[in-house]
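Methods, example record. To illustrate the input and output format used throughout this study, we show the complete record for Lipoxygenase. The sequence lines were provided to the predictor; the line carrying structure tokens was produced by it.
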Amino acid sequence: MLSIMGDGQGLRKKHERIYDYAVYNDLGNPDKKKELARPIFGGTNEHAYPRRVRTGRRSQKTDPQSEIVLGQGGEYYVPRDEAFEDLKKESYVAGHLKLIVHELLPMIEKVLTQKSEFKCFSDIDRLYNESFTLQDQPKSGRWKNIAGFVTNISNNIQGLPRFLEKLEDSIGLRFSPPQLFAKDRFSWLRDEEMGRQALAGVNPLQIELVKSFPLMSNLDSEKYGPEESAIKAEHFNHQLGGLSVQQAIEQNRLFVVDYNDAFMPYINKINAQKDRKMYASRTLYFLKDSGTITPVAIELSLPPSSPNFQGSKRVFTPGQDATTHWLWTLAKAHAASNDAGFHQLVNHWLRSHAVVEPYIIATHRRLSVLHPISKLLLPHCRYTLEINALARQLLINAAGVVETCFTTGPHSMEVSSYAYKALWRFDMENLPADLLRRGMATKDPNDPDKLKLVLEDYPYAADGMLIWSAIQEWVTEYVSLYYTDPDSLSNDKELHNWWDEIRHKGHADKSDEPWWPELISKENLIFILSSIIWVTSAHHAAVNFGQYAYGGYAPNHPCVTRRLIPEQDMDSNEYRELLQNPQKFFLSMISNKFQATYAISVMDALSTHAADEEYLGQRVQVNWTADPKAIACANKFAQRVKQVERIIDQRNADAKLKNRNGAGVVPYELLRPTSGPGVTGRGIPNSVSI
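The corresponding predicted structure is encoded as:
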């Protein structure tokens, strides 16, 4: 085992199988440009973060604490047994992402420099209805012959991305209509659809039950303004069907998606950027008699920024006339953009990529390949280190995809780090604990081991509990084969070293927290393993494979907001601009053509299942164990997963469940376990494989 642990020294080479820990010190690139300097994440209280696998690249000249960044053609070290297993898989994932980031997007940016604004919603529709052509650039040495370039790419990559078409002397871009757009191109405008997506969209992990009113912040009021929300009962009590606010709370009918504290500390820095403007949002929802939820008030806040501006908290409610309707639409777009940013930086990248890497490193370092827990976990490690390495190189790096496509820009990883420090807890990452924490479920009084959902038609939670129960049952039966008495657990030094290393090395910045489960019982071991498997499979699937379905149409889930909402003041040029052409103002506020095309291209790639995907309940390695009892347990789990799939199909056909069935409604299939290759909006891979 010592041979694969490394000693914290030297450059790691491609053929090696060495697992060691490092901080995130390779995201910035000050050697190229001082504006590309970024903090080191991990190892400090200010920028707490999980650890990554160590690569040992040399230091940058301008910042000796940071590793050099490898450009186009460079590959970040990944231990060989966690690298992509075959060239086709490598070409498909890595090749497409590198093609988009390094080659395609510079072309698009060059073409769109002079005509980058959407003039009307029809301009957005044309991304899916017409082919957008990139002509040859005769004066450019880099792209003299686009057709030759595409031929070269397609010969070295397993096909082109599905939105690229090789033409005689150009490249054609034509995106497939995202599910939401294909089902109902106007659905994003409806308030009920915004509510449905809070329960069944790409980020259904954030909604909480309102337990008291008014809503409150936990931030320092001297820095960030009053703790109490500006949303008052009089803003929305007329929308509660005759109930008072207190009655709505008592009947569990008020919900909130609250990003106030997550973004407020960074708003002034973000808004100091060119063409980036955002608020910290709160969205209040009401549960209607139909079983659907609808937004009834949105609060958009700015912190104090100078002696002359002591911050603001603006409250918007559904419009009663043409002007207030458009103000409400603008407010919904800002709230949706908050949601898009938090989804990507926290619920997706942090909670299902970054925090998982230490589990994988510790599994290889501390558990032999013959250890039964190693055999259980290895399918849930597959490809994650390679994907995370690509993310550091292309997605979360300085001037990478996230900084380019999201409002948070160069402060994106600071937001993620803050969430890790303030919010992330291992014991809350399993689905039941998360639902209880958010008030979205209660303990069943008839069976304390079961949960009762506060909202019956909450597709993510309802389907997720089926998957969680199947995982927990499988882990319980498997663990019980090898840990038959307390001594068998207490005497397993490998296992204790594994868990100790996850806590004290992989998550060293949070190792002193009191909530870490102690490895003192079989029940705790089952809880730990079930939580890890849930995160690497179902949690990741729920927040990843719907990216194109919901984010592929920019107005629905805009990654970028570039303007604030003007006050209703006729002396304001911006307000007069809004009144004169509200559609144009809306489009000038969200992603422009380049940002939208960039984001859509990447979302398409990240929402794609590869042909060799291994789904929950499946194992590529046939002879993974010689234990017939373990094989029997695995087969039982596979059958249980198939049963869950049938139940999900039945639910999606149930007309009473309006958050997954109805005219123009996208069925909830993100937790449907299996899928074919491509962008399908369904399927739970065993691991974070994309």
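Annotations derived from this record:
Residues 136-146 have pLDDT under 50 and may be disordered.
The chain has 26 helices and 14 strands.
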